[in-house]
Amino acid sequence: MNGPLFNTPVFTVDTIVKRLSSLFWMTIIIQNNFRSHFMPMIDVYAPNDLFPAEKDRQLGEKLTRAVLRAEGVTEPGPLHLQNTAAYIHKMQASAVQTAADALAKTVRVQVITPPGVLNRNGQKQLVKEITEIVTEISGDPSQASRTWVLLTEAAEGGWGIAGTAFGREEFAALAAKAAVAK
Question: Where in this chain does the record put each 4-oxalocrotonate tautomerase-like domain (predicted)?
């Protein structure tokens, strides 16, 4: 049915609701595929005497899995597990200082993700879980008060892998391709 002016279609409330519902579900599908296909990077900066050397692997694996959970990846596959990386930067103890302590036992964990991957609940969950992991592996219950977690989203177009700088357009195309492949 067409409207009286310029042969424009007339939309009913029912038609509008159906189209909005389709857009909503398409957005959910793209977001879920987006979350499941892009891996974060994790950097841990700590004094070299804070974590026992044999615990590096455990620290890296636990942090990686915590970030994936916070992103909503419930069943990480090989792509997630092989590409979500934790870089453990152990520094001379004297290189980590505060105004109060020349040999501070502070830890800085920075997680860099593509834009929009973590929602607010995911952010809260991740900060809590990273702090718990660092505290557990350090063996010092007071470590939580000296553990900083920085969640950083890469800038638009500032997330690259395999020679491609991903922005919204590239992410959306890749997510749509993944949705069709399912």
Answer: 123-167
